[in-house]
């Protein structure tokens, strides 16, 4: 098992934040800025976990999750997907889970929560965080 995380996100600030946070824990971040590019990156690359923004400029994150789960690349049926939702109180979270995401986290992104969510599926190559 590798440590490649695909982040599908159109907001450059969030992309930079997550890139720094995950690279500091030894992960490799693959970036996709649209839903369609995200689906094709998941199909072309070796991906161990997907972080998925819901509000994307083309297809939304729910549709991205459905396409990934329905892909002809069979391991995408099982790759962990963490939805990152701006409107967790407005039903985004439930919709994300029914579209095939495993868990969700709310924006604004909290780095410690991000690390914990990611490490629950893919251990950091640097080992557990200290106290
Ligand atoms: Mn967005």
CATH superfamily: Response regulator
Under the CATH scheme, the architecture is: 3-Layer(aba) Sandwich
Structural class: alpha/beta
- Helix amount, in percent? 25-40%
Mean pLDDT equals: 95
Radius of gyration: 13 Å
**H/E element sequence:** EHEHEHEHEH
Tally of strands: 5
CATH fold group: Rossmann fold
Q: Which stretches of 5+ consecutive residues score pLDDT under 50?
A: none
Name the overall outline.
globular
Ends apart, CA distance between termini? 26 Å
- Count of DSSP-assigned helices: 5
Produce the secondary structure layout.
Layout (H helix, E strand, L loop, with lengths): L3 E5 L3 H12 L4 E5 L2 H10 L4 E5 L7 H9 L11 E5 L6 H7 L4 E4 L4 H11 L10
Helix pairs in contact: 2-3
The chain binds manganese (II) ion.
Summarize the structure.
The chain is an alpha/beta fold. It has helices spanning 12-23, 35-44, 61-69, 92-98, 111-121, and strands at residues 4-8, 28-32, 49-53, 81-85, 103-106. The chain has one domain: Rossmann fold, CATH 3.40.50.2300.
Structure description:
By secondary structure, the chain is an alpha/beta fold. It contains five helices and five strands. The chain has one domain (4-121): Response regulator (Rossmann fold, 3-Layer(aba) Sandwich), CATH 3.40.50. Strands 2-1-3-4-5 form a five-stranded parallel beta sheet, sandwiched between helices. The longest helix is centred in the N-terminal third of the chain and has 12 residues, at 12-23. Helix content is 37%, strand content 18%. Helix 2 (35-44) runs parallel beside helix 3. It binds manganese (II) ion. Residues 10-11, 53, 55-56 line the site of manganese (II) ion.
């Amino acid at each position: 098992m590798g440590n490649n995380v695909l982040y599908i996100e159109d907001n450059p600030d969030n992309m930079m934040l997550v890139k720094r946070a995950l690279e500091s824990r030894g992960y490799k971040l693959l970036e996709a800025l649209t839903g369609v590019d995200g689906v094709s990156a998941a199909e072309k690359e070796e991906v161990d976990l997907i972080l998925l923004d819901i509000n994307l400029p083309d297809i939304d994150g729910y549709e991205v999750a459905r396409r990934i789960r329905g892909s002809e690349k069979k391991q995408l049926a099982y790759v962990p997907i963490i939805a990152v939702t701006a409107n967790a109180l407005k039903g985004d979270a439930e919709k994300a889970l029914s579209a095939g995401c495993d868990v969700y986290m709310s924006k604004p992104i909290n780095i410690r929560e991000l690390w914990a969510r990611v490490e629950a599926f893919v251990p950091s190559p640097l080992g557990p965080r200290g106290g």
